[in-house]
TrEMBL record:
Biological processes, Gene Ontology terms: L-arginine biosynthetic process
The protein's annotated pathway: Amino-acid biosynthesis; L-arginine biosynthesis; N(2)-acetyl-L-ornithine from L-glutamate: step 3/4
Annotated gene: argC
Species this chain originates from: Terribacillus halophilus
Domain of life assignment: Bacteria
The protein's name: N-acetyl-gamma-glutamyl-phosphate reductase
Matches recorded under SMART domains: Semialdhyde_dh
Catalyzed reactions per annotation: N-acetyl-L-glutamate 5-semialdehyde + phosphate + NADP(+) = N-acetyl-L-glutamyl 5-phosphate + NADPH + H(+)
Length: 345
């Protein structure tokens, strides 16, 4: 199948190219660039030398319709809102790595993204693409809204607990740390080496656009959801997210029983791996892979459950999950092209 990547010079796009190169059924035929059409990707990213023929192109629906059957959007919010419907209309199925189609309520999008939402009709048509939650819906979708990186880590950590009513939904606290590639390739004062090296920085507390995304899916999974506390911090590494999640247990289960329940929940989901009792994952253990690794701890003194969930933000948090969604949409085994050992150390 022939594929286009839109937002060609960003980190998400380059990660898509890396992973699609080893995919047995997908081939990148076009890279669309807003800033660098006419240039070769290798001019900007020498590590891609020999892996992409031809130059990047401008967005043209008529040309893309002849070139490809599938497209990934890896551009900032606002771009897919305007361009993706044109491709879907032309019969090209899409996965959007940005957040334009994740939230079902246009007013909620407007409030948190501070931008105009897509139409209500398109938001209703969009399928939120978390394969461990709604694989069947993804398979039928014309276009999929790939989850945000933090929501992926947080939701995979919380789904078994919330879906089974194990924790008090009002007590959930998500404390999440991300490497710098999560902020994209454009440098900023905060991501400047001398600012973030040997440093950690909290940001967007109470205002992060992933808050409504997390709450939307938890409400779907648990039937109801109170606001969650969500704090984000930058840590001096390139890849990786660790979400440490706290919630009050509201059922009389032991740590062993909780772990068994998580194992059962994820038994048919190959990309989620549970650590044995007394062990918790590290970001390096999933780096460059599509895995989400999870460890649990039940503090019997406080009756509080701690869930540690790690992903690579560019893979399970973006390009890898996007390809997992494409696989499901195409009726291929979801692990196709994604079954690989993390790079370690
Ligand atoms: N980095 C991550 O870990 C994750 C990112 N995402 C989301 O995926 C999308 C891509 O992220 P990422 O690759 O990191 O971002 P980058 O900032 O690295 O790249 C985004 C790319 O979008 C393109 N683009 C197209 N139109 C515009 C425009 N009007 N203004 C600015 N850029 C434009 C640019 O490439 P060009 O000029 O070549 O078109 C740019 O390089 C974003 O929506 C992001 O939020 C989601 C999950 C995780
Ligand atoms: C470290 C860092 O800055 N991370 C980004 C999240 C990246 C992501 O998933 O964003 P989208 O929802 O836009 O797709 C942030 O906090 O905004």
């Amino acid at each position: 199948m022939k594929v286009a990547i839109i937002g060609g010079t960003g980190y998400g796009a380059v990660e898509l190219l890396r992973l699609l190169h080893i995919h047995p059924y997908a081939e990148v035929k076009a890279i669309i660039s807003h800033s660098s059409a006419g240039k070769s990707l290798t001019e900007l990213y020498p590590h891609t030398d020999g892996f992409m023929q031809g130059n990047m192109e401008t967005f043209d629906v008529a040309v893309l319709k002849e070139q490809v059957d599938f497209a990934f959007f890896a551009a900032p919010p606002g771009v897919s809102r305007d361009l993706l419907p044109q491709l879907v209309e032309a019969g090209i199925r899409c996965v959007d790595l940005a957040g334009d189609f994740r939230l079902k309520d246009p007013e909620v999008y407007h409030k948190w993204y501070k931008a105009d939402p897509a139409s209500q009709a398109l938001l209703e048509k969009a399928v939120y693409g978390l394969p461990e939650w709604n694989k069947r819906e993804i398979a039928e979708a014309d276009f999929v809204a790939n989850p945000g990186c933090y929501p992926t880590a947080a939701l995979l950590g919380l789904l078994p607990a919330v879906h089974n009513g194990l924790v008090d939904p009002a007590s959930i606290i998500i404390d999440a740390k991300s490497g710098l590639s999560g902020a994209g390739k454009s440098p900023s004062a905060v991501t400047h080496y001398s600012e973030i090296n040997e440093n950690m920085k909290a940001y967007k507390l109470g205002s992060h656009k992933h808050i409504p995304e997390i709450e939307q899916l938890l409400a779907e999974a648990g039937g109801t959801q109170q606001p969650v506390s969500f704090s984000t911090q930058l840590v001096p590494m390139t890849r990786g997210i660790m979400a440490t999640i706290y919630a009050n247990l509201q059922v009389g289960l032991s740590e062993t029983e909780l772990l068994e329940l998580y194992e059962k929940y994820y038994e048919t989901h190959p990309f989620v791996r549970l650590r044995p009792q007394g062990e918790w994952p590290a970001t390096k253990e999933v780096a460059t892979s599509n895995f989400c690794d999870i460890g649990l701890h039940l503090d019997e003194r406080t009756n509080r459950l701690t869930i540690v969930s790690v992903i690579d933000n560019l893979v399970k948090g973006a390009a890898g999950q996007g390809i997992q969604n494409m696989n499901i949409m195409q009726g291929w085994e979801q692990t196709t092209g994604l079954w690989m050992l993390p790079v370690y150390p």
